[in-house]
Amino acid sequence: MSLENKVAIVTGAAGGIGLAIARRFVADGARVVIADVDEAKGEAAEAELRETGEATYIHCDVSEKLDVRNLVAGTLDAYGDIDILVNNAGIVVGADFLDLEEADFDRVLSINLKGAFLCSQAVARHLVERVKQGGPAGSIINMSSVNAVLAIANQVPYSVSKGGMNQLTKVGALSLAPYGIRVNAIGPGSIMTELLASVNSDPAAKAKILSRTPMGRIGEPHEIAGIAAFLASDDASYITGQTIYADGGRMPLNYTVPVPEED
What CA–CA distance (Å, rounded) separates 186 from 188? Predict the structure, then answer.
């Protein structure tokens, strides 16, 4: 699954799953642009990745078209090309359905879904022109979620945005297939990022997560990164329009499973 000499943009890559993907891509030989709004974490990620490969941090709010345009231009200035886009940037706003503010709904959809569209469109325009000139096709990977299919009552805009992400993946795949450009998605279940770290000190919360996870453990960011590396590689050359769920068996489950009590 070598990505030697490939150029990848990973949005939301200053931490969590995005940073794990950036690490894996660099390890596999890619040159990576870390796109994020958190400058301190983004620059720290750049410094870390430069110890083993090539990486550049570019500030980008994916919901802003000008920022996205500058991200693409900055990537081309830094590395001369783009081969891979990972739309990972996303936020969560929790609120009950009856109490959710319109502004919060708009903000989540703007970053999670509109941002993925803006980045995909901008990168795809570059890729299409490259293909027309006889160059290779590239790959776009969207970060979906099990909550594209499964709903959480107090995560309205997040669930809606991920459902939209699955459809964005399909329409993008169909639109770009004539150029050989592949568009796929990854749907993680419960992954041990900063957002879930608190469950380690909350036995009840951890038990709830494990009760719906047949494999009996919480996933790790590097496991999602491995899927991204596969989808970005030539080994996935005939895969497009698909969402791969990495959830420890949660999606097929129609019951909860017993969880041993911790000592």
Answer: 6
Domain count, the chain: 1
Residue 95 in domain:
yes
238 flagged as catalytic = no
**Mean residue pLDDT across the chain:** 95
Taking the C-alpha atoms of residue 57 and residue 36, their distance in angstroms, rounded to an integer, is: 8
Specify burial of residue 248 (Cβ count, 10 A radius: 0-12, 13-18, 19+): buried
Tell me, yes or no, whether 81 lies in a domain.
yes
Q: Establish if 103 belongs to a structural domain.
A: yes
Query: pLDDT per residue over 91-147, tens digit each?
Result: 999 999 999 999 999 999 999 999 999 999 999 999 999 999 999 999 999 999 999
Q: How far apart are CA 48 and CA 234, in angstroms?
A: 27
pLDDT tens digits along 181-231: 999 999 999 999 987 877 777 888 899 899 999 999 999 999 999 999 999
Query: What is the end-to-end Cα distance of the chain in Å, rounded?
Result: 41
Task: Enumerate the β-bridge partners of residue 85.
Answer: 9, 140
CA atoms in the 13 A half-sphere facing the CB of 181? 29
Query: Residues 53, 27: contact at Cβ < 8 Å?
Result: yes
Q: What is the CATH number of the domain that holds 207?
A: 3.40.50.720
Cβ partners under 8 Å of residue 99, min gap 6: none
Q: What pTM value is reported for the model?
A: 0.95
List, for residues 31-60, the tens digit of each pLDDT value.
999 999 999 999 999 999 999 999 999 999
Name the catalytic one among 158, 179, 238, 245. 158
Q: Which domain, by its residues, includes 14?
A: 7-246
Measured CA to CA, the distance from residue 56 to residue 150 in angstroms comes to: 36
